[in-house]
Amino acid sequence: xxxxxxxxxxxxxxxxxxxxxxxxxxxxxxxxxxxxxxxxxxxxxxxxxxxxxxxxxxxxxxxxxxxxxxxxxxxxxxxxxxxxxxxxxxxxxxxxxxxxxxxxxxxxxxxxxxxxxxxxxxxxxxxxxxxxxxxxxxxxxxxxxxxxxxxxxxxxxxxxxxxxxxxxxxxxxxxxxxxxxxxxxxxxxxxxxxxxxxxxxxxxxxxxxxxxxxxxxxxxxxxxxxxxxxxxxxxxxxxxxxxxxxxxxxxxxxxxxxxxxxxxxxxxxxxxxxxxxxxxxxxxxxxxxxxxxxxxxxxxxxxxxxxxxxxxxxxxxxxxxxxxxxxxxxxxxxxxxxxxxxxxxxxxxxxxxxxxxxxxxxxxxxxxxxxxxxxxxxxxxxxxxxxxxxxxxxxxxxxxxxxxxxxxxxxxxxxxxxxxxxxxxxxxxxxxxxxxxxxxxxxxxxxxxxxxxxxxxxxxxxxxxxxxxxxxxxxxxxxxxxxxxxxxxxxxxxxxxxxxxxxxxxxxxxxxxxxxxxxxxxxxxxxxxxxxxxxxxxxxxxxxxxxxxxxxxxxxxxxxxxxxxxxxxxxxxxxxxxxxxxxxxxxxxxxxxxxxxxxxxxxxxxxxxxxxxxxx
Length: 616
Known about the structure:
Elements lengths: L11 H6 L11 H5 L1 H14 L1 H13 L6 H8 L1 H28 L1 E4 L3 E6 L5 E6 L3 E8 L1 H5 L2 E8 L7 E7 H27 L24 E2 L5 E5 L5 E2 L9 E2 L10 H9 L8 H10 L14 E5 L1 H9 L2 H22 L6 H7 L1 H15 L4 E6 L2 E6 L4 E6 L4 E8 L9 E7 L10 E6 L1 H11 L11 H10 L8 H5 L2 E3 L16 E4 L3 E6 L4 E7 L5 E5 L2 H5 L2 E7 L8 E6 H27 L5 H9 L1
Antiparallel strand pairs: 1-2, 2-3, 4-5, 4-14, 5-6, 7-8, 8-9, 8-10, 11-12, 12-13, 13-14, 15-16, 15-21, 16-17, 18-19, 19-20, 20-21, 22-23, 23-24
């Protein structure tokens, strides 16, 4: 990234001449960052005393008196105790002093182009994130900082996780204020770039967007709100609606819609800043856009559309296969230790329990990770889906729906009784952080359909097949009871019978379907899974065939997406069919991307034409 200011920036010389104002982070930041080291020292000290405690327990179990020779020696040498206490105090004083020095050099600075973060006492570091490259700003609060009223800002910068900046720690109030200020600056920066890219030659663009057309070519009159933006209200089928004065209200037309945009992106563009308020426009437009999925969503206060209670997350975590295996191993170790104690082999009791501690810690860590998704709340935001979750540690982030590359639904075996599903996604420049790529940690079928609908473009299906019919058929295959299930099932291409040798359990279920905008993959027999990949988001394709596949005349096509929990594969199809899919899908994705890019360069999109194309 360049550190130079843009020459096109207004008042650039004045900004360059202005003094650099650095703001300090919270004084407790260095201590909290080194807390892990202190905990490690404590654990090492406890581990060093393990032999003493083990001997004491064995002596007590056998009826012998505990060996206190070392304690008696310490009592006879009080200067040793004073030296130890003095050493601990000295270490604490030095730690506080160096923490103060480290805090003095830590700070952040914001200007019109970027945010800067510096730190380091001996090895100094300076990180910079350009505002036009910032994708999202997340507010995270781990348990201890949360108890102290502190938070951390994480800047997701285009270019991968190595480009990200973590600004910690700030007071919660200051973190929220800075986040709102920077989000507004990021949006203004991107709107200015978009307006400059879409403006016709010789046209002056003001207020971040082109002026609305008037006259015969634009019969619909536009009314302006206080900010000077043109807005209309969603009517039937997403068309504009007028109020009694003839003005259009409620929908922001400053950014055009594109046919490959997801429903959530289209909704955010329509509602603009009103998406953050309690408004009938939000609920009406959302339900209108979700009509193909036969959903009726309720938009609560502050745009809330989904809330996952903590008890559901806890129960779903306990029904996770990994959690059950960990608990089973721990119970087995405890039972074995008790058996050894009962039969008189006391010396094996404690080592077995100590040997099970890593398993207990692993199970607790996995369970705690799931608890981090408790109280999962999804809210409609102007910038995407605003997500808040956490029981002990809380996190707030915005999922930019225009950057989602693929979406999947997953149902573990033990979730079937409750009908729960989990929704995940791949996102551009996220570095594959699988444990954070959640649209929905656990939810019922309607919540799963809602999140899939918001994250994906209109499927553009043939007449007689609804979007929810296709998705339910992908989720439940031939067991789906949806009225459109039979017609939707005809869209799926199943694996040939010859693949049953290498896929004896899943070959009947695994299949793929193509719509005008999506590739849908049906996977799994015990753990059900459905992958969705919009044509416009495909990075590349690869056809391959191993020796056994060649012998069975089978082939596989890998549909490359960005790093994440989803790895789309059109697997073990007939070799000729796989090659034909490879060729045709490569052309299909190329045309989809060219159409999408062409729409991005157009300053306006005819909404009526868009709707006709979408209803196809």
